[in-house]
Each structure stands twice: as C-alpha cells, then as structure tokens.
Amino acid sequence: MSEIRLAAAAALALLAACGQRPAPAAASGSDSAAAAAAPVPAADTVAPVEQLRFSSIIAGFELEVPQSWGRRYTVSERSEPTDYPRATHVVEFMYPPDEGGVPPTLLAIAVYRAADWNAARGSSAGEVVAQKDGRVYVAVPAARDAPFAKGSPDAERFEAARVTADQVKRAISLR
Question: How high is the pLDDT of residue 44?
Fold first, then answer.
C-alpha cells in the first residue's frame, strides 16, 4: 500500500513540475465515477504567446518584439554613436549565435534630430519609421548576407528573425 502512495506522490510531483493539474484520484464507491468525469487539460494545449515589449528610455520608444525573435535577442543602447553620424541615439537588437562570435545586428533603430537627419539622409542607410517632436526614428534592418554558414541552424534562425521597415512601423510607439 505504501508503494502505491509513493508512486502516486511521485506522479503528482511530476505533474506539478510540468504545470498541469492531475485528474482527481479515484476513490472508493460512487466517487470514482465523478473522478473519472473530471476535466483534464489536453496534453497538446498550447499556452498563448506572450507579446514582449522593449522600452528604450534614452531613445524614447517602445517596440513590440517580433514573435520570431522570442526571447533570443540582446540589446545595445548608445548615445552619440560614432557608427551612425549625426544620430543622437541608436538601439541595436542583436542575435546571439550558438556558433559564438560577435552577435550580428537584426535591427538598429537610430534617432536623429530632424535637421540632422535631413543632412545625413543621403549617406545613412535605413528608412524613417516614425517622427515626433522634431525627432526622426530610422530603422536599419539586418544586412542582406547572413554572417553564418549557409544551412546552419544559426543561419536559419537568423533568416527567420529578419524584419522589414514596414514591420517596425507597425511595432514602434513613441513616448
């Protein structure tokens, strides 16, 4: 009898660790029919996907993180970045590869004063995705060539995580 209780306790602990509720244990007599009829969540039930939001205090925007990124990205925020002349801030979203090395940029959002963007526009890459209070937000999606071996898991995940300027326009909100 104690072996049955030990096995039942182990099964309950395993189910609790997985976040699922077990069906009520069968009892003696008429309660066993009620226990058998109790609803049990389906094993293939998928939890709703949580919409992640990134908020940049220094650059003054929020971005709905693309579902394709999941939680697999890192962020770098810089003021007066030298690699984006005339920009006041840049926020780079990078893909951390399994292969190691420097994480490549999936998306950069550079912030310019309107006058500085007008002066830098011809020499700067990217597309305007938002404007507010004299600030211009420019999205610079990932370079065309993935920095990974063709067909590698990192190359496939990186390609799936690419975003367009149009997607950024729909995902960005300014403060």
Answer: 54
